[in-house]
Amino acid sequence: MADELIQDPKGGMPRLREIMRRLRDPDTGCPWDIEQDFGTIAPYTIEEAYEVADAIERGAFDELRDELGDLLLQAVFHAQIAEDRDLFDFDDVANGISDKMVARHPHVFGCESRDKSAEQQTRDWEAVKAAERAAKAQTGVLDGVAVGLPALLRAVKLQKRAARVGFDWPDAGHVIDKISEEAEELREAADDLGPDKVEEEFGDLLFVMANLARHMKVDPEQALRRANAKFTRRFERIEALLTARGKRPEESDLEEMDALWDQAKAEERA
Q1: Which controlled-vocabulary keywords does the entry list (predicted)?
Q2: Cα(first)–Cα(last) distance of the chain, in Å?
Q3: By CB atoms within 10 Å of each CB, which of 19, 117, 151, 187 scores lowest?
Q4: How would you write 145-190 as a 3-class SS string?
Q5: 3 neighbors 15 (Cβ within 8 angstroms)
Q6: Which tens digit of pLDDT belongs to each residue from 119-162?
Q7: pLDDT above 90: percentage of residues in the chain
Q8: How far apart are alpha carbons 80 and 234 in whole angstroms?
């Protein structure tokens, strides 16, 4: 029956779980899959999450289906590793998140009124999460902010937590002043101090930039992705314009490429 399930194109989640179980079988499975553990798989999990975000950003919904499948595989893989170690299994994972979603939405699954704004629901959500942290003996304001998050995202989450207890600048203007201060400290470090201090001051500047994003209600990851896409688009235009001149970028110079950059900008705005 297991072989029939594996070959069933409509087998859904049971099929995927059986495939992963077979891949991890210590006697008949794939040597690579058998060797993996939580730590070796985690980078792939992060990568797949970013590929999901990329497909959404590009509106590539056929690709999104495939990328969501790749991300789902990561969850199944982690759950199978856990089951192999007698820690928990996939059903435990699914039941755990189901319990959490029911508990965090009493206005949908309980007796609370649904007559509330999105802002009130956000406050209620945070109150429930705070109670969950307290139940886990996570009493510090910053407890539970995952260390493994991308650094920029973690910076924003840390700052949001601190802001809840009043540790925050009153407005974006104060943050911009702090950016100027940190930029000057970075300049001084670059002139007079070693690489460790330069890295520290650069980190401080990035941290304050993340805070400015929060004050301006900008998602810094999204903003940087858009900036990356814009740079890629304009630089590819530079390459195309150079090709029309019979050149490659390494055969050009900064002055010429900078002028072509301005041309690419002007074309986008036209």
Answers
A1: Hydrolase
A2: 62
A3: 117
A4: CCCCCCHHHHHHHHHHHHHHCCCCCCCHHHHHHHHHHHHHHHHHHH
A5: no
A6: 777 777 777 777 776 777 667 888 888 887 888 889 999 999 89
A7: 69
A8: 44
